[in-house]
């Protein structure tokens, strides 16, 4: 699709001599990338090359992943374009922290943050549109994340519920998407001369809520995938003016990577704006991005509201016994604090530690889904197969042989002479869990979810 004339004129004017290489890069090929999941037991993919690391992403590599591969299906890799991988590196979440990803679907940055946190602390990941939040929740599951709350809420409701709560907040804002023109030409059809200004106004509204969610001394990262100064430097200049409790922090641009400073000259000449980062396709192998990192002053005034802890649900004595027996027989290596369980219908979730109360916010996933009560038994959830390390399961069966892999992922039962006891078996491929089967009379009955079979 051809670039709009008004877009061409705008960037000729802004970029001057640089506009030639910029427009040439927009006609060039799209750079592909993926990340390795540090939460998985075995981290060496067998069908992907790790020869070309992405300089600005600790777990990132150039290359293309098939959505049907063992690596993708087991959550060992997440397919994500190279520039997008810089954003979570700037957030730099630490194990044990409370981290919020406010506009998170489909989950590229959230899964990267989960990898940084290594299962410790709380990752609250939110998407306003429910349908997109479901995709986010599936990606969190596939990645094997145990400490994430997945919600679908407006940012203003989260700001009311969790004021001054988070150590780090990421707003990867809905933007005009100019940086994705090459990857997703449909984005060009949404564009008009006024679109960046309209998107900037929406981002300012979301930011007004985001600033309330950061605790004093905490970090706010704002990112876009657009070149538009209205949504980038100008939005940050206006944020600094509106919220004097926030100051810009310098971003490490990774010497030699091609990542460059923000452009103060496009937003009132505040030198400070050089601390922000731009990723241009003419400067590096990736799409267009902008990132700003801010800190709320440690002495900023705090909300008087206290955030309550989410109450756990009590199980009946019979249910507790069913669950304990299940854990002992199926996942003896998993330690479960029975005081941190919540129920959503028949499903039982293990909450992250110190999880705040959900209030009226719509929750799709509340930590690790262990499984569900069925009449007189407890059945493991698919999420559990992806989140545990294979050596935590009592019984494991590898489906690496291509015909067995194809049969399992297609939903078929497998026949085996393996020495297995009657009960649930963790199926693994490439060294990582992929789903459950139930062993009965020499047959592995398939528990791979119907909606995921291929
Ligand atoms: C750039 S995308 C997020 C991409 C995601 N961070 C990732 O890495 O996979 C922005 C998201 O913001 C959501 N969004 C749209 N309007 C919003 C609003 N008013 N408040 C919060 N999020 C919104 C979009 O649905 C979209 O999923």
List the helices and strands and how they pair.
Elements: H1 5-15, H2 19-26, E1 33-36, E2 60-62, H3 70-73, E3 77-79, H4 85-91, E4 98-101, H5 108-117, E5 122-126, H6 130-142, E6 148-152, H7 155-161, E7 166-172, H8 186-190, H9 195-213, E8 214-224, H10 233-242, E9 246-249, E10 260-261, E11 277-279, E12 289-296, H11 317-330, E13 341-344, E14 347-350, E15 362-366, E16 368-374, E17 377-380, H12 382-387, E18 396-398, H13 402-410, E19 414-415, E20 423-429, E21 432-440, E22 443-446
Parallel strand pairs: 4-5, 4-7, 5-6, 7-8, 18-20
Antiparallel strand pairs: 1-2, 1-3, 6-15, 8-12, 9-12, 10-11, 11-12, 13-14, 14-16, 16-17, 19-22, 20-21, 21-22
Helix pairs in contact: 1-2, 4-5, 7-9
The structure holds S-adenosylmethionine.
Keywords: Cytoplasm, Methyltransferase, RNA-binding, S-adenosyl-L-methionine, Transferase
Protein name: RNA methyltransferase
Binding site for S-adenosyl-L-methionine: 103-109, 127, 154, 172
Quick overview:
This protein has 454 residues and is an alpha+beta fold. It contains 13 helices and 22 strands. The longest helix is centred in the middle third of the chain and has 19 residues.
Give structural notes.
This protein has 454 residues and is α+β, with helices and mostly antiparallel strands. The protein has helices at 5-15, 19-26, 70-73, 85-91, 108-117, 130-142, 155-161, 186-190, 195-213, 233-242, 317-330, 382-387, 402-410, and strands at residues 33-36, 60-62, 77-79, 98-101, 122-126, 148-152, 166-172, 214-224, 246-249, 260-261, 277-279, 289-296, 341-344, 347-350, 362-366, 368-374, 377-380, 396-398, 414-415, 423-429, 432-440, 443-446. Helix 1 crosses helix 2 (19-26) and helix 4 (85-91) crosses helix 5. The two termini are 33 Å apart. The mean pLDDT is 97. The radius of gyration is 23 Å and the shape is globular. Strands 4, 5, 6, 7, 8, 9, 10, 11, 12 and 15 form a ten-stranded mixed sheet that branches. Strands 18-20-21-22-19 form a five-stranded mixed sheet. It has a four-stranded antiparallel sheet with strand order 13-14-16-17. Helix content is 27%, strand content 24%. The protein has a domain at 5-296: Rossmann fold, CATH 3.40.50.150. S-adenosylmethionine binds at residues 103-109, 127-129, 132, 155, 172, 174, 202, 206. InterPro entries: Methyltr_RsmF_N, MeTrfase_RsmB-F_NOP2_cat, MeTrfase_RsmB-F_NOP2_dom, Nol1_Nop2_Fmu_2, RCMT, RsmF_methylt_CI, SAM-dependent_MTases_sf. Residues 1-297 form the SAM-dependent MTase RsmB/NOP-type domain. S-adenosyl-L-methionine binds at residues 103-109, 127, 154, 172.
